[in-house]
Amino acid sequence: ASATRSVARTSYAVQGQRPASSLVYIEHKNGKMNDSTLHAVTAAKAVGGDVSALVVGTESEVASVLDEVKQIDGLKKVFTAKNEGFAHVMAEVSSFLDSSPATSSGPITHLFAAHTAVAKNVFPRLAGTMNVSHVADILSVKYDDASKSTEYTRPIYAGNAILQIKTSQDKDRIGIVSVRTTAFDKAKMGGSGAEVEEVTAQPADSPTKFISEELTTSTRPDLSSASRVVSGGRALKSAEQFTAVMEPFADSLGAAIGASRAAVDAGYADNSLQVGQTGKVVAPELYVAVGISGAIQHLAGMKESKLIVAINKDADAPIFQIADAGLVADLFTAVPELTEKIKAA
Ligand code: FAD
Fold first, then answer.
1. What is the pTM of this model?
2. C-beta separation of 47 from 21 below 8 A
3. Contact 292 CB / ligand 1 (< 6 Å)
């Protein structure tokens, strides 16, 4: 560890009077870039200065996403780090990031990624290795070139308070930053094709080995990026009723399905569907909460939605305080009726 750390110190030492220069970690899976990365690019652009991208993966993984990544608007360079050992993103092997790409193009001031499961896994370890803070789940970023300090905001206490964080180059040589995707627009595609540079990278030696992964597959839109989300709560009463009521409703709107934690804990819906403080954060154009009371931990994951509709039989349910439209009704009659009307429209 001490050897790794000393490499990091050399690479990132003394930011001095150099301008901002950010690197965005490109998340990808099955040969496609994860769209959430584009939000991280926008955050990197807000810093000012150069923005480059880093694609880490096996030879074929990198090859299949490279064309897409090169088209991201406003990138100075795309760095690629290819190695068969990068086949599955694991924090243990990805900690090579602390020294690699920066050395070929001058030190970087900020490393960004979208605040996804991947960044939540890789970035804390990386920051620990480099002895700097991981600034997680940011809502805004502002870099002051004169003082070389960066100011961030991030939600705390389930979004009930906003924390302001200021880092300075003396203490944090580099910002290791993950970005709340709903707080930044997607960077545009259609760039003129950034220059590509390969960097040599070896996966760090680790006793942790990848064994297998089991993924929930769905033909529905991805919950985190869907423009419409319908979520069901405890009121659905069973997994069968959750499916019978929510699936046709979601299909009628072309929506992704979400769930409250109570519904997930009771086994009505898969864990990957949980919306909220300890689930996914979504901000779709339309969010329909069905039989969900509106606990603050649930609101933390959906209150930035553009149009919130609540269906609840209790007129005093807290969800109505943030809903743009509400229907006080029994969901078992209202939702099937609504589904039929939407289909017929
Ligand atoms: P309930 O609160 O039981 O609400 C059910 C609602 O359905 C009620 O408002 C009721 O009026 C209505 N209803 C009942 N029957 C019908 C019917 N027939 N027709 C119409 N309406 C009906 N929760 C999350 O959702 N996401 C999180 O990420 C999350 N993280 C948490 C983290 C921590 C640390 C803690 C302590 C809690 C967390 N919770 C989270 C749990 C949260 O506090 C609530 O317990 C949970 O959101 C309640 O889920 P619910 O609204 O489905 O259930």
1. 0.82
2. no
3. yes
